[in-house]
Design the sequence.
């Protein structure tokens, strides 16, 4: 969506340039927000925004066209009284960088950094509208202009937002096109839409997404993992592969709550990035591409190496993960890997397990 005056429109059409051979970069962020009740809402919003700005600046990538921040990491909403001081209205067609009096400081900061680095910023905030409050995903384009916001009814782990339904926003109908200026050329990057993993669970795929129009989705994610079925990376991968979508997930991080999970999933080709920061903090993961589905990580990770697996397993001991409460409905038994063969009966199924010398296993189920 572009907003230029008529004089500039002809020049824009002449300069628009789709370049297959050029490389561009998308950033997805795992971020642990400041949660300190000694700070005022204004201080927390501005502190987290300052960290956002630092992460954009530290990426050191001139080709960065889009960066995605997680849900719920600007504010610290925990109870109903928090909603008003953390919220802001979003006047239509606004540029906070040019309208500082109409927007809070943190939106002014984000708008100006988007313009300075010519990067589209996708982030989440508490939006006030008609005396009500929503968790909203917002797109600031490369000029610091608010392309749109998507209001959502709820946020995982937060029970104080509204309970009544709002009209469903179909992500495929709100597409934006990041652009990059280089010398006298404006390069238009592939189309993107913003959606939510929660929306994906509440509505059918056909109602939520228009697969023919958009297959590249950006997600401001906040997920509290539960073993064994609902860990964040597991759910994200299944969703992307089942619906054959390229998806870029940012992840809110809090190791003490089991919150985390950032990933890049190239539709049916599977994941390129699946990361959790087990010790907290913040990190930007950068993906270089010319064709959106044919790219590579700026810093590749070999998930198959024994060194990586050993280190990741050790580090994740510091990360708390809940047990799915539905697990109580299942029977379970602990298997001894030292035994060469084990036979046990669970409910109506019989499982036979053979362990080889490397302690890997193969499972066979008989009904």
Sequence:
């Amino acid at each position: 969506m572009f907003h230029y005056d008529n004089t500039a429109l002809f020049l824009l059409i002449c300069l628009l340039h789709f370049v297959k051979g050029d490389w561009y970069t998308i950033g997805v962020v795992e971020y642990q927000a400041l949660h300190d009740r000694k700070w005022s809402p204004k201080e927390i919003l501005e502190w987290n925004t300052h960290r956002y700005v630092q992460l954009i600046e530290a990426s050191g990538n001139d080709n960065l066209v889009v960066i995605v921040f997680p849900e719920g990491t600007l504010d610290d909403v925990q109870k109903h009284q928090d909603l008003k001081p953390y919220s802001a209205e979003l006047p239509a067609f606004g540029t906070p960088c040019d309208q500082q009096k109409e927007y809070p400081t943190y939106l002014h900061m984000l708008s100006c950094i988007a313009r300075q680095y010519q990067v589209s910023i996708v982030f989440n905030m508490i939006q006030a509208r008609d005396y009500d409050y929503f968790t909203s995903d917002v797109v600031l384009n490369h000029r610091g202009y608010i392309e749109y916001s998507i209001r959502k009814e709820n946020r995982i782990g937060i029970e104080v937002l509204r309970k009544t339904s709002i009209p469903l926003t179909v992500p495929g109908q709100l597409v934006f096109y990041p652009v990059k200026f280089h010398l006298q050329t404006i390069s238009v990057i592939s189309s993107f839409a913003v959606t939510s993993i929660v929306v994906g669970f509440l509505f059918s795929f056909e109602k939520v997404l228009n697969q023919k129009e958009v297959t590249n989705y950006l997600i401001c994610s906040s997920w509290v993992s539960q073993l064994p079925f609902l860990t964040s990376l597991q759910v994200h991968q299944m969703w992307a592969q089942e619906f054959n979508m390229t998806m870029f997930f940012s992840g809110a991080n809090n190791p003490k709550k089991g919150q985390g999970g950032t990933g890049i999933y190239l539709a049916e080709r599977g994941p390129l990035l699946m990361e959790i920061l087990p010790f907290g903090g913040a990190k930007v993961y950068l993906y270089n591409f010319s064709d959106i589905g044919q790219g590579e990580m700026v810093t590749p990770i070999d998930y198959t190496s024994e060194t990586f697996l050993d280190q990741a397993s050790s580090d994740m001991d510091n990360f708390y993960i809940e047990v799915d409460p539905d697990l109580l409905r299942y029977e379970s038994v602990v298997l001894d890997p030292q035994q060469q063969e084990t036979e046990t009966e669970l409910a109506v199924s019989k499982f036979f397990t053979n362990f080889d010398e490397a302690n890997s296993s193969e499972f066979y189920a008989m009904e």
The two ends are 55 Å apart (CA to CA). The longest strand covers residues 120-129.
